[in-house]
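Q: Is it fine to ask for two folds in a single conversation?
A: Yes, each is treated on its own. Send the first.
Q: Here.
A: Result:
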Amino acid sequence: MTIDDTLADSMTSAATELISLVGPPLPFPFDDDGRRWIEYRPHTRPGVSLASLEVPARKAAFRLLATGLSPHAYAQALAIVSLEEVLDRSEGYVRGRHLNDYWVSIFGTPGSVDPWTWRFEGHHLSVSMTVAGSAVSPAPVFFGANPARVTYGAHTVSRPLAPEEDVAFALLAALSPTERSLAVFADMPPLDIESGTSASASPLSPSGVSATSLNPAAGALLASLVGVYLDRLPSTLADDLSPSLEELRFAWAGPERPGSPHYYRLQAADLLIEYDNTAGGNHAHSVLRRPAADFGADLLAEHRRAYH
């Protein structure tokens, strides 16, 4: 939970504008079952679809999304959305994928003393933020990409999650043999991120190598990799989520060469980061979750202490 009047106000303003343009069913009740929800597969989901909105409301939905992301992460998110059309073409247009197949939801009343949540979500993108007064609690934040890489000859045309992959491989290469033996826990990656679409991201087994055991070069790269995920968020949120090295672990599964299916995770006391690349190494899922604070659980606990 981060106290930031400017950020909370910008989210409140954007959400209020969206509600005024869309009307019912926005906002949903705060205690609606759809609030604690993450689904990154191509399904119908709670909320209002962009396809159903007029252009001004659609623009307002994107402005709300932008309040919860840093400038470069917002660009990543829009690149992920646009890949729906690329994927649809590669599949022969048989599934009817469309870049307007994204949904926006608001739960509770923006600007009230009580907490409220907004979410922007669709295939390979899910961003949830909970707000109460000037406090903002982020997570889950999911970014995926299929195809993860589009090339023209030797040139990369599209690769939205390049930092998430490149910094991880650089970290793996910087590990000593002993450090690598501790970090790598399986020869093959799981089929997906292990937290999946669960409303509660339970801490995973403490596999991997401890940050305190790393050589200086690897330690610096580990900090950079954590930063790749935290820097998806506005800077004040990112700063507050930065974990101490004493509690951070890095774990890897799968081949150790780019272009192959692979998986890694970073885990600390209230931070879970997962990345999984499957389908021949060209279909990526990545997520930032907070097992004790997803969907604003920390903010809600503080609100109950203060007002109830």
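Q: Second one now.
A: Result:
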Amino acid sequence: MDVKDKIKKEIDRLTGLIKENERITLQMPEYLRSNQIFLLELYKKQLNMLENELIKLEA
């Protein structure tokens, strides 16, 4: 498995985690949401970095 495939697989995994996290966050009590939103933002930043890395590798 080469680097591109690993990055694509990780992008797919993070995308699924983000969607699931967004769904769960809506069902959480208000006092727990801030931590969940923080985690969600970290996932989104990581996803963005991986997507940029994939673009660099494909260029």
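Q: Anything structural to flag on that second result?
A: Two points. The CA atoms of residues 6 and 27 lie 32 Å apart. The chain has two helices and no strands.
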